[in-house]
Amino acid sequence: MAKQDPYEVLGVSRSASADEIKSAYRRLARRFHPDVNPNDPEAEEKFKEIGQAYSILSDPDKKARFDQYGTTEDVPTGGGDFFGGAGGISDLFEMFFGATQGGGGRRRAGRDGEDVRADIELSLKDILTGVQREVEVDRMSECSHCNGTGSEGGQAPETCGTCRGQGMVATVRNTFIGQVRTSAPCPTCQGEGTIIKDPCKVCRGQRLVPEKGKVTINIPAGVEAGSTMHVPGQGSDGVGGGRPGDLYVVLDVERDERFERRGQMLYTLLDLTFAQAALGDQVEVQGVDDVLPLEIPAGTQPGTQIPLRNAGLPPLHGGRRGDLIVQVNVKVPEKLSEAEAKLIREFAELRGEKSPKGEDKGGILGGLFKKR
After folding, report:
1. pTM for the whole thing?
2. Could you give the CA distance from residue 197 to residue 156 in angstroms, rounded to a whole number?
3. With 102 labelled, which of 2, 142, 155, 360 sits at a CA distance of 20 to 30 A?
4. What is the span of the domain harbouring residue 362?
5. With 70 as the cut, is the pLDDT of residue 79 above it?
6. Which residues, in sequence order, are CB contacts of 13 under 8 Å at separation 6+?
7. Among residues 60, 86, 112, which one ends one of the domains?
């Protein structure tokens, strides 16, 4: 029973074909499999949801029932729905005994290739414009020495004498309802239907060899650190007609000491002198890709944030850039000459402020009045 819309869980439309549904399920199942995400309860829960969704959409009767009623529970099903829907009892037998022998023994259709991962490090300028990168991928590829047959000299594997090429063998089991004829993967050929007598000396009969491949990745502007790009068909090769795995590219962004990123917004720190902050000034600020003019108003206080519009980063799917926020820091000189100290005292007197006591009397500004 599905608690969510199975189409939404698998990310397919209601008009999706059986092959499209199966492909979406395989892709998501590999991504969220517990072996790939150890100690991740959220991934495990997602894996269960994917399985539940596929169990509905891969069963014609359950799918039709969901399309009609919007649910698989509490709807009229008739006598054919014993043990959970039409075909449910055969599913029960397959769970405990293997495939039933009514459909003429199924031969396993190859093995899909493994997914692989690559990492790319980007700069803020890369994120600003988007960039094309070539990544090196460690994957398993079809052995060229045996042309993927696994046999020395490229000879075709021999048909398994146990299952006669079917990949499955029939057995008879005594069950609570009598004898049941079932089929299971052939123990001689492990369900392949063929046997390699003379294994390839290069791949040792595995049909695949390690390879370092190169893949060109087009990275859009506005990506976030930790984002993952999915490139179908660029993983390891499949075996026996299985589809190739996929490539997952994990993006990282190198730290730029000049900026702090918060989504599309960038923050930077600008040091001003007391004179600049008090009187105002025209200064230049280093942006991501250019030097930008900035107007400092007279009387600017420490900590003031001044935005530079459209000088931040763009959103992922295009649109207006964020802002560059310039936070002002007023630098106080660490040492002053006697002449400079005198001017500051005079400035304080002109403003009607109490004159600082200075170093000799332990004033708060004492450290400023050391002779040079």
Report:
1. 0.59
2. 10
3. 2
4. 338-368
5. no
6. 7
7. 86
